[in-house]
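Input structure tokens:
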């Protein structure tokens, strides 16, 4: 019986049928249709997280600058620390710092403190304000200029 089956296999099928190939293609298409949007969502989330980390790095540099240079930020009048003029010029930030989502070099921006607390961070990747992204603290969350919200502002203002 085993010999009979072996002979039959040798004589008959020597490849895949069109139906079998189409079935595999359909299964792969379904898997791709499910996986691609998920993967793109993960990529977008990671870009946002990387941007928030960059904003946090700028905030920490501004905090270090204010402390090291003995700048009074306790006033109710907003105190603006410029990214290019203060932080990069005084070597508190690397001049090659980039915004991860766009991979563009940060060329301008400012960190604003009011009454000793961070009120906003703005970062720009262009020569003018048209390509500036900003995060403004709004109670327990931070709101970007594009309307996105970070619920946990400890990411931006943690004392770690």
């Amino acid at each position: 019986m085993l010999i009979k089956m072996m002979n039959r296999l040798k004589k008959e099928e020597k490849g895949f049928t069109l139906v079998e190939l189409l079935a595999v293609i359909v299964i792969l298409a379904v898997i791709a249709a499910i996986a691609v949007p998920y993967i793109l969502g993960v990529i977008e989330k990671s870009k946002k997280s990387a941007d928030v980390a960059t904003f946090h790095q700028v905030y920490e540099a501004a905090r270090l600058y204010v402390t090291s240079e003995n700048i009074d930020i306790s006033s109710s009048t907003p105190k603006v620390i410029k990214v290019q003029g203060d932080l990069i010029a005084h070597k508190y930030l690397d001049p090659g710092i980039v915004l991860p989502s766009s991979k563009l070099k940060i060329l301008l921006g400012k960190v604003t403190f009011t009454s000793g607390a961070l009120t906003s961070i703005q970062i720009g990747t262009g020569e003018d304000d048209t390509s500036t992204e900003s995060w403004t603290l709004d109670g327990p969350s931070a709101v970007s200029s594009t309307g996105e919200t970070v619920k946990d502002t400890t990411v931006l203002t943690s004392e770690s």
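The chain has one domain: 17-138. Confidence is low (pLDDT under 50) at residues 151-160.
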